[in-house]
Specification:
Length: about 170
């Protein structure tokens, strides 16, 4: 798998996106559908985790692999003590991500990235906001106050730059 290959190469951190299945499990997938990356079709949110496990991931050349869609918990367990994970697209599921991190004892090696303002982050997740390594996304849409609020309250490890800040197409 890509995770094991990253571990074997000595990669320090891997970024991945999470999506929510119909029955409330987090799976690793960039898209909200399985059309582009598996031998199935449809939205992730329309399938249970067991149903998603029936589909196989596609290789870059389009051939069907022997790999299945991994759950976040499986990836956390597999990477535990071997490399850090950067979880993106999890703003709506931060409490679920945290539960999986607790269950796998990987809170200290997992970083969350997101676009919430600090006040939204703290209000939406009052029980976990101060327990997660959260890195706010910094981009042209955020004001200096957005950055200052995070600096004053949690002093994040860093900021996750939006593509608009680093794109070669940006004038």
């Amino acid at each position: 798998s890509g995770i094991q290959n990253s571990i074997d190469m000595g990669v320090d951190i891997v970024e991945m996106d999470v999506q929510l299945s119909k029955d409330g499990f987090l799976v690793i997938m960039h898209d909200n559908s399985i059309n582009r990356t598996t031998n199935g079709s449809g939205l992730i949110s329309d399938y249970t985790l067991a149903e998603l496990k029936q589909f196989k991931l596609l290789m870059p050349n389009g051939a069907v692999s022997n790999e299945f869609i991994p759950s976040l918990k499986e990836v956390l367990e597999h990477s535990k003590g071997k490399m850090h994970l950067f979880i993106d697209k999890g703003d709506d599921y931060l409490d679920l991500v945290y539960a999986d991190m607790l269950a796998t004892d990987t809170v200290g090696q997992t970083i969350m990235g997101g676009t919430m303002t600090f006040s939204t982050y703290k209000f939406k997740y009052p029980d976990v906001w101060d327990k997660i390594n959260y890195i706010p996304r910094a981009g042209t849409g955020q004001s200096l106050d957005y950055i200052i609020d995070f600096e004053d309250e949690i002093n994040p490890l860093g900021y996750f730059p939006s593509c608009d800040l680093i794109s070669s197409n940006n004038d």
